[in-house]
C-alpha cells in the first residue's frame, strides 16, 4: 500500500482519543467484518468523512485518500479500531483535543512542523512514542489492503 506522511498516524490517534470515529454498519462493533461503513469527524468538527470497506478494499472521501491515493487519518483510525493496526490508547490519549485542521493550515501543510509544535507544547517524550509510531507506519505499508477514492466529494 502507498503510505503518506507518518504524521497521519498522529491525526488518527486524535480521532480515536476524541471519539470522532463512528461505525455505522457494524452496530458499534469495532472488529473487522467483510464490509462496513464508518463516519469520521474532522478535528475542527466542520466535516465528516465516510470510510467504507469491502474485503481488502477501503475507500474514503478525506483529502489524503481521495486526492493523494494513500490512507488518510480516517482510514488509519478505522484500521486501528478494527485491530488491523496496533493501537496503544495511552499514546493516542496524548493527542486528544488537537485541531489538526487549524494547526496544519498554520504550518502551510508542513505536517512535521505541526507535529513538532504539539510535541513541544505538550512536553511529549518522543522516545516513548517513536517506536510505536514507526511500527504502525511499517505495518500500514505492509497491509494487504487497497485504498481508493470514496464517493461524495
Shape: globular
How far apart are the first and last residues' alpha carbons, in Å? 22 Å
**Uncertain segments of ≥5 residues (pLDDT<50)?**
none
Radius of gyration: 14 Å
The secondary-structure class comes to: alpha+beta
Question: Approximately how much helix is present in the residues?
Answer: 40-55%
Number of helices in the DSSP assignment: 7
Main sheet specs: 5 strands, mixed
Average pLDDT metric = 92
What's the order of the H and E elements? HEEEEHHHHHHE
Count all strands and give the number. 5
Strand content: 15-25%
Give keywords:
43% helix, five-stranded mixed β-sheet, single chain, alpha+beta, 7 helices, 5 strands
Q: What is the fold's blueprint, element by element?
A:
Layout: H1 7-17, E1 21-23, E2 35-41, E3 48-54, E4 57-60, H2 63-68, H3 73-81, H4 89-92, H5 100-106, H6 111-122, H7 126-142, E5 146-149
Parallel strand pairs: 4-5
Antiparallel strand pairs: 1-2, 2-3, 3-4
Helix pairs in contact: 1-3
Structural notes for this entry:
The structure is a single chain. The protein has 153 residues and is of the alpha+beta class. 43% of the residues lie in helices and 16% in strands. The protein has a 5-stranded mixed β-sheet with strand order 1-2-3-4-5. A hairpin with a 6-residue loop joins strand 2 and strand 3. Helix 1 crosses helix 3. It is globular. The model has no long low-confidence stretch (mean pLDDT 92).
Quick structural gist:
The chain is built from seven helices and five strands; from the N terminus they run αββββααααααβ. By secondary structure, the protein is an alpha+beta fold. The protein has a five-stranded mixed beta sheet with strand order 1-2-3-4-5.
Amino acid at each position: 500500500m502507498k503510505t503518506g506522511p507518518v504524521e497521519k498516524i498522529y491525526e488518527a490517534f486524535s480521532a480515536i482519543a476524541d471519539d470522532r470515529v463512528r461505525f455505522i454498519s457494524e452496530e458499534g462493533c469495532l472488529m473487522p467484518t467483510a464490509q462496513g461503513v464508518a463516519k469520521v469527524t474532522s478535528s475542527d468538527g466542520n466535516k465528516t468523512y465516510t470510510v467504507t470497506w469491502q474485503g481488502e478494499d477501503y475507500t474514503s472521501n478525506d483529502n489524503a485518500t481521495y486526492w493523494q491515493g494513500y490512507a488518510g487519518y480516517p482510514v488509519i483510525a478505522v484500521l486501528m479500531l478494527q485491530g488491523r493496526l496496533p493501537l496503544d490508547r495511552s499514546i493516542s490519549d496524548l493527542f486528544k483535543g488537537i485541531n489538526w485542521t487549524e494547526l496544519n493550515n498554520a504550518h502551510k501543510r508542513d505536517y512535521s512542523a505541526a507535529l513538532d509544535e504539539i510535541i513541544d507544547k505538550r512536553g511529549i517524550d518522543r522516545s516513548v512514542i517513536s517506536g510505536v509510531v514507526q511500527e504502525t507506519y511499517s505495518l500500514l505499508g505492509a497491509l494487504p489492503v487497497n485504498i481508493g477514492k470514496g464517493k461524495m466529494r
